[in-house]
Amino acid sequence: MESIVHWFAANMPSFLSPEVAVFLVSMVPILELRGGLLLATLLKIPMTQAIVICIIGNLIPIPFILLFIKQIFKWLKKTKLFCPLIEKLERRAMGKSDQIKRYEFWGLVLFVGIPLPGTGAWTGSLVASLLEVDLKKSVPAILLGLCMATVIMCIVGYGALGSILS
After folding, report:
1. How far apart are CA 62 and CA 39, in angstroms?
2. What mean pLDDT do residues 79-96 have?
3. What is the 3-state secondary structure (H, E, C) of 70-136?
4. Chain mean position to CA 146
5. Is there a contact between 128 and 100 (Cβ–Cβ < 8 Å)?
6. How far is Cα 102 from Cα 75, in angstroms, rounded to an integer?
7. pLDDT tens figures, 108-147
8. φ, ψ at 8 (rounded to 5°)
9. If residue 8 lies in a helix (H) or strand (E), which one and from where to where?
10. Using an 8 Å Cβ cutoff, are 22 and 54 in contact?
């Protein structure tokens, strides 16, 4: 993920402001808030501004995933082109679902909140949707997980990494 963020920082289109670039990276699966905060660090965006941009960017896709992904997957599975990809995505998401099944709310919080590869709000929302976790549990858990990931990534990006880059 870090190499993707560095590539994006080096090759950022000139028509994008640093803030828009961070916002867009925060919306992208895999990179999400973690990648957005790392990019914000590299682009020297102040931490409080970066937090707001990254959280908003990371939150925008979540309701769509929670509410519509099962129907979208069902529709895409009917096509020859997308069926293998959707089945692979479902297998990968469900392969990461053990802690969410076992601990539901707190499992989802930890899954979204601990910034490891393959975790985050996108995958957490996908797994919650596929496991049919109630929205009253999944939405607060994802929000709490995002807050946790934000704190961890600010410590990494603006603390440890920030002091190295300065």
Report:
1. 21
2. 87
3. HHHHHHHHCCCCCHHHHHHHHHHHHHCCHHHHHHCHHHHHHHHHCCCCCCCHHHHHHHHHHCCCCHH
4. 8
5. yes
6. 29
7. 999 999 988 778 999 899 989 988 899 999 999 999 999 9
8. -65, -40
9. helix 2-11
10. yes
What residue type is 41 in one-letter code?
Answer: T
The alpha carbons of the chain give a radius of gyration, in whole angstroms, of: 16
Cβ atoms of 112 and 146 within 8 Å: the answer is: yes
Element (H, E) at 86: helix 83-95
Residue 21 burial (10 A CB sphere; 0-12, 13-18, 19+): buried
CA distance 106 to 117: 19
Number of H helices, E strands in the chain: 11, 0
- Predicted structure pTM score: 0.83
Within 8 A by CB and 6+ apart from 124, the residues are: 100, 108, 111, 112, 141, 142, 145
For the record, the structure tokens of 42 come out as 């590299």
As given in the structure block, the two tokens for residue 56 are 């908003």
DSSP three-state, residue 22: helix
**For the chain, first and last CA: distance in Å?**
21
